[in-house]
Every structure is written in C-alpha cells, then in structure tokens.
Amino acid sequence: MHLDPIKAELLASYRSLGGINHVDGVNLPSQESVNQLAADCMHLLFPGYFEESAPTEESLPLLVDGLLARIDRRLLAEVEKCLRFARTADAPSRSREVTTAFLRQFPGVRALAKTDVDAAYAGDPAARSVEEIILAYPCVLVISLQRLAHVLYHLGVPLLPRMLTEYGHERTGCDIHPGARLGTHFFIDHATGVVIGETATVGSHVKLYQGVTLGAKSFDLDPAGNPVKGVKRHPDIGDHVTIYAHATILGGDTRVGGHSIIGSNVWLMRSVPERSVAYFKGDNLVVRSRAADDSLVGRGPGPEHPHDCGL
C-alpha cells in the first residue's frame, strides 16, 4: 500500500522519540469523558439553566439523582486512571474516597458560585438579569470549574484538575490554574486572555478585566537545569481590588494591597500598599494613595483621578 512507508516512519519515530507517545502504560484519563464531566458538573451547580426544559420542584430530585449518579460513575473511573498513573497505592479504594469527598463539596461550591454571580450582576451595568449572567457570561463557567478543580487539586489528584480547567479555558480563553486560591465574589469582565497562575491568591470582591495576567517573574532551576516545582511564584491580590485590562502582575513576593486599583496596561513586579492606584503617566509607573480620589467622591474626576488614567 502507498501508506506503508509512512506507517513505517511513524512507528520508527514512536521508538526513537520517547516522551510524546504513551504505549504499554496505564490508561490515561479520557479528554472526551472529562469534558462531559465538566458539562455535567455545570448542570449540577446550576440546575434548570442548561437543560432542554426547566425542571419543576417535583422533578428536581430525579434530575439530581441522575446527575449525581452519572458524575459519580464517570469521576470514579477517571480519578482511578489518574491515581494509577501516579502509582498511588490501592488506587481503587482511594479513588472511591476522593470521588465521595469531591461530591460532598458541591453545596459549598454552589454557595461560592452564587457570590460570583452576584458580583457579576453588581459589577456590570450591562447585565440585565442573573439568567443572562449564568447562561452567557464566560466567567461563570471558568470560575465555577476552577473552584471544582481546586477541590481535586487539594485531594492530590494529578492530571484531572488541569483537564477540567482546560475545558473552561478552551471555551472562554481564560486560563485559571486549579491551584490558585480564589476568594468570594470574584468577577472577570469579558474574561478573554486572563491568566492566573498556580500559586496566586485572589481575595474577595476582586474584579479583573480582559487580558490580565497574574504570573511568575522567572523560574528557579535545580542543579540539572530543570524548573523547581512547588515554590511560590505568583502574586497575591487583596480584597476589593480592581485590575483593568491587560495589566500584568508578576512574582511570588508581589502583593497588591486591598482596595487598590491597577490601571490598564500596567506592568507590576513590586508590591503596592492598601488603597493605592497604579497607572502609567507617560513612560513612568505612578503608584499613589487613593486618599485624594476618596475625597473627590461626588465631585467628578480631577487631575490624575483614575478616570483620567485609562482606568
């Protein structure tokens, strides 16, 4: 056959280029199955929003029964694959423990998701209803899935948490690592292009705009030249902080104090105190107190007021 030479070259490459083919190994989690798991989790978090027809109070227990059973079955299988990949002792028993522990977190994650929806409604004058936010705002999907993936991350499950958040990333263009710690009332307006790294912490009542990066400055290397894992690399964001479009905040020792405003396109690699405003004036980064702005409430923007700074 005309394809035989191509087949032979491919088989040879599988033998010579190890590391990008998985042969004679344990079964890896299925991307298709994990994507369906993500979708089912959204149905369980927000019942009645993604069904063909809305459930009634009477039919809701039956809907929840079906969703829980489907998620339990699928999650159990995928978690066991992940634990076998990690060579976890007694993977079947441990996967049962992890799956049950994960499902028990759904009421708590729903309570957090409610605060995120409330923040979106309060933070966007274009929002006309809660229904519009849940159905059409990308931040609801990506933050909700990250909160669920965060549970699996702290239960020590490899692979699967990243695959869950990647479903949200593919759908929204917003990439939040499952290890990131998110406070309540988190809103990402527009969402596209936002990146939040593994060791970042985000306080409560934080609002981000599109293109914001909470990233690492650089990577420490071990003697073999490989990145050192498990160290603090990403910034901490305090409560009631607003970060405008395309701002970049880097470094594990960088903290943005509470009630601060970071302007559009700001590149920040040092901490700023509470109640600060950071913005560019010409080519210079300006970080100043918000006290002057607070005194202008009700008087309109004056010189160097945030509204004049691309905020």
Topology of helices and strands:
Layout: H1 4-16, H2 31-45, H3 60-85, H4 91-104, H5 106-123, H6 130-136, H7 138-154, H8 160-172, E1 175-176, E2 181-182, E3 187-188, E4 195-196, E5 201-202, E6 207-208, E7 213-215, E8 236-237, E9 242-243, E10 248-250, E11 255-256, E12 261-262, E13 267-268, E14 276-281, E15 284-289, H9 291-295
Helix pairs in contact: 2-3, 2-8, 3-4, 5-7, 7-8
Task: Describe the structure in your own words.
The protein has 311 residues and is an alpha/beta fold. Helices cover 41% and strands 13% of the residues. It contains 9 helices and 15 strands. It has helices at residues 4-16, 31-45, 60-85, 91-104, 106-123, 130-136, 138-154, 160-172, 291-295, and strands spanning 175-176, 181-182, 187-188, 195-196, 201-202, 207-208, 213-215, 236-237, 242-243, 248-250, 255-256, 261-262, 267-268, 276-281, 284-289. Strands 3-6-9-12-14-15 form a 6-stranded mixed β-sheet. A hairpin with a 2-residue loop joins strand 14 and strand 15 (284-289).
